[in-house]
Design a protein that fits this description.
446 residues; alpha+beta; seven-stranded mixed sheet; 27% strand; elongated
Length: 446
């Protein structure tokens, strides 16, 4: 690993914000802290908010071994019980990580916002920061839930108020609100699941999310206005035929269908967000311009964005930001999109495997659940308490009856009995099979 300069010699080249209140908010088990916020309340009532991102490309040069590895992987993969990092641990957990009480190099977007969260000016620059606090989301939420008693809590409350206004502005512009719980597991010392629980989105999560979105959007907008080739994060409009089908189903079912079922169907109708040099905007966020700038420790597209920003916005033309380990930027975008989708599937499979292991320990038990998918071979039921999902084969729905598949209305109908099984129906099921190797769970209707 090559260190181009030490931090002391970099300070004179960068904006020094080490005296400003700065903190990170991350999951309790996180080791790689790639983003931090700084906060200053100014005399005129405005707020100076810095979004500081680990300056990974200061240490990782185009085409070096770490860069080649990162490009090939495209992204870190977060399994239930471990992380497969995109970069070596000495980089992602040590040198680049924005750990507290250490001087760190960043690529930053520094905003001046008024009391209504309107950005009056911004500056994209290289900085040196020193984080004062490493907070977990739970710790930050505890401070937000109480009256502020110190400088940190006061800053968090002010930032939370700004974040809520930024979020409202997005929603008013047509952004989609598809916030979902995150499945999590408690594991024993052998890595065996002993409990399944859900991480609920909190104001602390949304606070970080809104300022990361603001930084990403600002960088993309400025690059777009400079008419330079760039890496955008794009999200196409949904399939309107599928959306019309969802709307028709909702009208027909009325209050009988759960909001979560409609949300699930809406998500299925959505296109996948991808990376591209051809900007079409981001439908889900309702942004004309968007990119990924805020997670270069775990996403290679963010490293590409940092190099382009350094070259075009900061006017730096060095080996660190001009040379590329790939021939064509659009091909690199396609590669990163594929690797991201592969990683997401790996992560889903990891969750499904752990759920199957947990269900294997509960063979023969009964649970309440909801039909979340209807096919011509059966229905998939998600259990209410733990979100484990399994199949009830059509032969296990109704004894001695042939089931007809009504695709248009998301249901199966018994030919003899007329009994129906419709998307969103509540069922009582018994666990009859849990194949750990294939991470498949089978239920029986009871």
């Amino acid at each position: 690993m090559e260190k181009t300069t030490d931090i002391a010699s970099e300070i004179i080249r960068r904006r020094d914000v080490r005296e400003q209140l700065t903190f990170t908010i991350d999951p309790a088990d996180a080791k790689d802290f790639d983003d931090a916020l700084s906060f200053v309340r100014q005399d005129d009532g405005s707020f100076l908010v810095g979004v500081h991102i680990a300056d990974v490309t200061h240490y990782v040069l185009p085409g070096d071994e770490n860069d080649k590895r990162a490009y090939e992987k495209g992204t870190s993969i977060y399994y239930v019980d471990h992380v497969d990092p995109m970069l070596p641990e000495e980089l992602c957990n040590d040198l680049c990580s924005l750990r507290p009480d250490e001087d760190k190099l960043c690529m930053s977007v520094v905003f001046t916002l008024d009391a209504e969260a309107h950005v009056t000016k911004h500056k994209i620059c290289r900085t040196v920061i020193r984080s004062n606090h490493r907070l977990t989301y739970e710790q930050a939420q505890t401070l937000l839930d109480a009256q502020p008693t110190d400088e940190l809590a006061t800053a968090l409350h002010a930032l939370n108020a700004l974040a809520k206004k930024l979020r409202k502005e997005r929603m008013d512009a047509g952004a989609l609100d598809l916030e979902q719980e995150e499945v999590a597991f408690r594991l024993d010392e052998q890595g065996h699941p002993v409990d399944i629980y859900f991480k609920q989105p909190m104001d602390a999560n949304r606070l970080i999310e809104e300022f990361m979105l603001l930084a990403n959007r600002t960088v993309a907008t400025e690059m777009a206005h400079r008419h330079h080739e760039f890496v955008y994060r794009v999200h196409d409009k949904p399939d309107h035929e599928k959306l019309d089908k969802v709307a028709a189903f909702q009208r027909k079912m009325g209050d009988r269908v759960l909001p979560s079922v409609i949300e699930m169907l809406t998500i299925r109708a959505m296109a996948k967000a991808v990376y591209s040099t051809k900007n079409i905007g981001h439908y889900g966020l309702a942004f004309d311009y968007y990119t990924h700038f805020t997670s270069p420790i775990r996403r290679y597209p963010d490293m590409m964005v940092h190099r382009l920003v350094a070259q075009v916005i900061l006017g730096e033309r060095t080996k660190q930001n001009v040379e590329r380990p790939y021939k064509d930027l659009e091909d690199a975008c396609d590669h990163c999109s594929v690797m991201e989708q592969n990683a997401q599937q790996e992560e889903r499979d990891s969750v499904k495997t752990m759920q199957t292991v947990w269900m294997h320990d509960h063979m023969g038990e009964t649970f309440d659940g909801t039909i979340v998918n209807v096919t011509d071979f059966g229905v998939f039921v998600q259990l209410d308490g733990n979100r484990c999902e399994g199949l009830i084969h059509i032969t296990d729905l109704v004894e001695n009856d042939y089931m007809l598949y009504d695709e248009k209305n998301y249901r199966l109908i018994g030919e003899q009995t007329g009994k129906t099984f419709t998307l969103g129906d509540k069922l009582r099921v018994k666990v009859v099979r849990a194949d750990i190797d294939r991470h498949q769970i089978d239920f029986k209707n009871i």
